[in-house]
Amino acid sequence: MRRISILGSTGSIGTQALSVAALHADQFRVVALTAHSNYAMLFEQVRRFRPEIAGLTVPIPMELIPSDLRFCEWVFGREALTICAKADVDDVLVSVVGMAGLESVLAALESGKRVLLANKEALVAGGHLVTEAAAKVGKNALLPVDSEHSAIFQCLEGSAGNPISKIILTCSGGPFRTWPKEDIRSATKAQALKHPNWVMGQKITIDSATLFNKALEVIEAKWLFHVEHRDIQVVVHPQSVIHSGVVFADGALLAQLGTPDMRLPILYAMSYPKRLPTGGEPLDLFSLGALTFEKPDEIRFPSLRMAREALENGGAAGCILNAANEVAVAHLLSSGEQSPMTVGKIYEVVEETLMQIGHLPASTLEEVLEADRRAREIANERLKSL
Description:
Layout: E1 2-7, H1 12-23, E2 28-35, H2 39-49, E3 53-56, E4 73-76, H3 79-85, E5 91-94, H4 100-110, E6 114-117, H5 120-137, E7 142-144, H6 147-156, E8 164-171, H7 181-185, H8 189-192, H9 202-210, H10 212-225, E9 232-236, E10 242-248, E11 253-257, H11 263-271, H12 303-313, H13 317-334, H14 343-357, H15 365-384
Parallel strand pairs: 1-2, 1-5, 2-3, 3-4, 5-6, 6-7, 8-9
Antiparallel strand pairs: 8-10, 10-11
């Protein structure tokens, strides 16, 4: 039985991780749970899974903790993530949103835990810090949970040590796949939140609409699989059946197929190297119909270009890109119907922030956090002028 800590247990990934943990209660023991501010849902999770530690990063008075839930240790504030990352567990699922994920990942790795990574910021902002820490823990200390990176990892399991010639990173294209550039730029929050295939949190849904999600995944793939960005090919695949693949020197392409169900990559990371039933329906090839593929348009979706430029520029460019995007997306999500904030403003804020800051070092965690702080400050200033 593997002991697991779930950071971000009330989010989309966290709740699905708990659902498969419950399905295989003989395989997993939930030891620690954290949430940001949704204490009502966390209370129900604690009541059901009875962890040893529970935490909220937004503190609440201890008297609000129901008496029947005081059997476990309660921790509050930002340190709740670190405490639960260092708990007596085998695996730490990091599914928190934002830069808090980087510190959580490093804390888990530094204490010798296997990290199941569902946080993009950790590798995008601090790729070399995370990969160096993972290398000290050992092989497969860092297992991807994103469906695309999980697919690539699964394909590499059959590589017999052969090097990758190219990574194929698929994406659905989001709700604006066929929209003209001008319409994308003026698109609203409501339009961006209508993803055609996946049910996800609001932030990642907006990122999927702008393709910043895929841009961040290009940066992640560079660090996870030790490849150059020119060897990562983004392919628009609207059906979301082929989750990604790898090409080898002989031209063979191995790809992983499945239904658009996040329980598969979550459970694969949790149970690796085992494969366990997810509780969902397997892929039915006879019902698929046609599978189609398109080249991404970096004119309509400049996020992909920005990611490649960030990798070329090095230093803290990935961190700056991520921070500015996060600020702009949060602004869009909090905007009202009459707000001038549109999807197109996200691209503008990110590019202008990158240009204004220029090159910053990112050799230490402190330098990464400072770059993140500066990027957020500049992005917020830019948004005030809208």
